[in-house]
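hey so i finally got around to running the thing on that chain from the lab meeting. sorry it took forever, my laptop kept dying and i had to restart like 3 times. anyway pasting the input first so we r on the same page abt which one it is
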Amino acid sequence: MNTAVDGVGDGASPAGRAGLARSSVVVAAGTFSSRVTGLLRVIVLAAVLGEGLLGDTYNLANTTPNILYELVLGGVLAATLVPVFVERIEHDDDRAVSAIFTVSLTVLLGFTVVVTACAPLVAHFIVLFTEPAKRAAQLHTLTVFLVCFVPQIVFYGFTALASALLNARRRFVAAAFAPVVNNLAVIAILLAFAHYVSSRRGAIASATSVHLSDGSLLLLGIGTTAGIVLMAAVLAGAMLHAGVRIRAVLAWGEPAIRTIIRLSGWTLGYVVANQLAQIFVIILANRGTTGRVSAYVYAFTFYQMPHGLLAVSIMTTIGPELARRATARDMPGYMRDLRLGLRYIVALVLPASVLFVVLAQPMLGIIVQGKFTVHDAAVTGDTLQVFALSLVPFSVYLFTMRGFYSLQDTRTPFFVNLLENVLNIAFALALYWRFGVQGLALAWGIAYLISSGVAFRALGRRVGAIADTAVRRGAAKAGVAALALAGVAAPIAGAIGHDSPGQALAATVVAGTAGVVAYVAVLAALRADELRSLVDLVRRRGTSRPRV
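ok and heres what got predicted. didnt touch it at all, straight out
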């Protein structure tokens, strides 16, 4: 294999790799904006609602539409849409694209109506295993929130469809930046809610109370859903700008629909296993001490930031290319892109994982304000540190799943994912009672560590050895550089401390910057091909304007 092309040993042409990298940079910029504003949303949410009963109830209710959407159609669409759209676009089959939109949204709309009508029953199920006093306190508020949040399901569906179609057409900007609109809208609503409640009660609702007026709850609930609606509207505008015209084609027998159904059999099982495990973990977290649901949700949001910014950016742009390679039966090209994506993911995600382990407590200390106390920050920081240990296995696992889906293989991911969820539930049961919410994060990490290895080996048996010399060498150099990062950042953060938000901010910025500099310096000293390639490709970014 050629190891001298453009500084990275994958054999891809410089122009082709530059195009992938430019698209990845665009996606990364949008994802960065999305994650930063998402982080601001969590900060405001924590300050306004804290980790008390009101915060737990809001987070429980706001998680439910995501779970239900994934159960019904979301995971199926995510796994099958890009390969199917790529194939339909190659054949200029606009009718098939319209049929996919129409049938999918029809299913989601019908499901949404039914679930909204059954919101009280859903609320009872969510708190079924909670202590009676806590259940009684949460039930009404949870029901009101669910009525407001469940309609998000339809707009999540449209967002997934529009994003996949735009990505399949190599138009990445709108899908990457649209979540920013949602985050800003929710931040505005949270601030409006805080002002509304304080003007009527003299203070924001106490951290142990959910007894607010229905008007207050509706403001918070409807406003949160409005952010999802605005995000969908942005993508609808991007589709019009791209010249995409969707017609109402309710054709259940359309070949593209049959392809999705054929591919979705195993994928549905994959999604059901995922969501059942998530439901189990969230309900388990809601037992016992108030605030554990919020600590888990807030820590997981921080944890997802580097994954979404770095790994998802790579996966979003390389995923369609893998599908095209597989459709054209270009396996050498498929392997080059697969290895390239893997090397970039390890090189970019590993330092983020180490930074989160080292700096989780200062990072959470920055946002101690309002209803988010020092104790809340410590619990959430501990949870984030445990989560961060699994960041690389989690990203590698999901990238490997993209490799299977690009081959239109949904059967293998089902069995691997079933293993992951069984492990997650088993370890959660074993660890939660001893370590609390940190035990849930540890269970997640162990499950993904084992399952990522299984998935990697399974894909390797299908397409050939993935971890060639260049992949192993790149991972080893990234590991050495990550040790240097920890060795520099940890003592600096410890010396500065995080006893106040100001100290925490200084520790995060100074130690984080020094650690990243050390990481890059060691990679440069080791002459890591990934670093040189990334620098070269970022420099080329300005030579070609990506389509929107």
